[in-house]
């Protein structure tokens, strides 16, 4: 406190003498102000309000630093898109498969379904995908599938799309389905009955299950248009098996399929 008062007195004295405008006051003020350079220096009481020139000198973690997992996933998205735009069919197929690996497609179990109160074409489903709470998902299936055929059914859910408000209901995902060219017939994709709700789907051979990449975030999926790039390559084959090009859509207990639509688009 004494040091602080001393410094304050020196500053006041400097100001007084400078205002008088005498020649001696200038030199005296200079000599008195030089005392400030010898005054004790205090460390800032609140380090968070300082603006250090060197990065993070106090060792506090930066709140703006991306986690390594988020950064690596973002790099994976960029690399996959670059590969999908490569030269040659093989390069394109490889890139599309990498992109598809960024989608978080899971086995779902519809716990209950009902008609949307505000939209005649929509169902609302409560779907278990292995999370602590079921997802609420809206689907435009009223014209194609009777409501009773949804109750208790195993389905395939694309779970890392950004939520959408559909006539007052927040829809957090999409039920995947096959449809013919004219979109007159639509059938839900389904896993083997033994598949566990929440299991992640992959494309390829049985041995590739353990090589799945981390799923991208909903923001990354939207920003990089991952679903829009992958979707045109999803179809059923002649046996109604869901395929990504030549790669089978799989669960740990078997492949994903629809009931009867062959060579159909999947969305």
Automatic annotation (TrEMBL):
Name by which UniProt lists this protein: tRNA-binding domain-containing protein
Transmembrane segments annotated in the record for this chain: none
Keywords associated with the record: RNA-binding, tRNA-binding
Domain TRNA-binding: 99-202
Key word tRNA-binding present: yes
Coiled-coil parts of chain: none
One Pfam family, short name: tRNA_bind
Presence of the UniProt keyword Ion transport in the record: no
MF GO annotations: tRNA binding
InterPro entries: NA-bd_OB-fold (IPR012340), tRNA-bd_dom (IPR002547), Tyrosine-tRNA_ligase_regulator (IPR051270)
UniProt cross-references to SUPFAM superfamilies, sorted A to Z: Nucleic acid-binding proteins
């Amino acid at each position: 406190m004494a040091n602080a008062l001393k410094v304050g007195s020196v500053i006041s004295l400097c100001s007084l003498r400078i205002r008088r405008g005498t020649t001696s006051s200038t030199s005296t003020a200079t000599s008195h102000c030089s005392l400030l350079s010898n005054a004790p220096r205090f460390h800032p009481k609140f380090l968070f309000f300082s603006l250090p020139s060197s990065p993070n000198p106090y060792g506090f973690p930066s709140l703006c630093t991306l986690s390594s997992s988020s950064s690596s996933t973002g790099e994976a998205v960029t690399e996959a898109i670059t590969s999908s735009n490569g030269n040659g069919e093989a390069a394109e197929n490889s890139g599309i498969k990498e992109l598809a690996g960024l989608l978080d497609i899971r086995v779902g179990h519809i716990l209950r379904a009902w008609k949307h109160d505000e939209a005649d074409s929509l169902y609302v489903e409560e779907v278990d995908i292995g999370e602590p709470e079921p997802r609420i998902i809206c689907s435009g299936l009223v014209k194609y599938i009777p409501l009773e055929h949804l109750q208790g059914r195993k389905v395939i859910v694309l779970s890392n799309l950004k939520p959408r408000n559909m006539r007052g209901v927040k829809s957090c995902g999409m039920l995947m389905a096959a449809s013919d060219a004219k979109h007159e017939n639509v059938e839900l994709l389904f896993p083997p009955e033994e598949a566990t709700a929440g299991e992640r789907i992959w494309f390829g051979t049985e041995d590739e299950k353990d090589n799945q990449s981390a799923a991208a975030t909903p923001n990354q999926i939207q920003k990089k248009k991952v679903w829009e790039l992958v979707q045109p390559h999803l179809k059923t084959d002649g046996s109604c098996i869901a395929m990504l090009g030549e790669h089978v859509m799989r669960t740990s207990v078997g492949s994903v399929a629809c009931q009867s639509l062959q060579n159909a688009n999947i969305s």
